[in-house]
Amino acid sequence: MTAVLYSYRRCPYAMRARMALAYSGIPVEIREISLREKPASLLAISPKGTVPVLQNDGLVIEQSYDIMKWALKQSDPDCWLTAETEAVIDEWVAKNDGPFKKLLDQYKYPDRHPDISLEETLSQATASFLGPINEQLTKSTHLLGSKVSLADIAIFPFVRQFAMVDPDWIDQSGLDSLKQWLNQHLESPLFLSVMQKYPTWHDPTQE
After folding, report:
1. Fewest C-beta atoms under 10 Å: which of 87, 115, 135, 139?
2. Are 51 and 39 in contact (CB under 8 A)?
3. pTM exceeds 0.70 for this model
4. What is the pLDDT of residues 39-70, one digit of tens each?
5. Domains in the chain and their CATH numbers?
6. How confident is the model at residue 110 (pLDDT cuts 50, 70, 90)?
7. Which DSSP string do the residues of 175-187 spell out, in sequence order?
């Protein structure tokens, strides 16, 4: 049975799951959902109704980072994740998925946070996350060294989303190493391959 991934093209969590699955070479049926009309088959296996969700026979994985790790356990040809690197990768991803994601939401939706200035959000994001990434990337081409790792793929879609809010800001930020890293991933065959457009999937049981 081919694995099924409930996905939404522009969601950074779904992006990183699709990238890991594609890299691992795992056959998967991508079901592009409508956030306004979530299919009953998705809600039946994952009532929280967020994407991505992976279903493979009796296995259901509801968190994108867990999907990535599962995929790499099946096949990891370039050693994106090893026993030696897992702890430091987990640390990077925890910072991304926790504090940085909160700042990203503040930056994308300032109307929802009228008590916080954009300048304050940008300052916090730079000091706590984007700056340290840039500093690391001045020493190596990727977060863990000269090769791509799970850390790069798990974090890149969120940095992409942050940069897209105001491209002029990232251009003028002085974060040149981060920008180079970002552009490298934006132009990578892997990323481009998972960003093709899929028609919205409709649950046949609802038709």
Report:
1. 115
2. no
3. yes
4. 999 999 999 999 999 999 889 999 999 999 99
5. 3-78+191-206 (3.40.30.10), 86-188 (1.20.1050.10)
6. very high
7. -HHHHHHHHHHHT
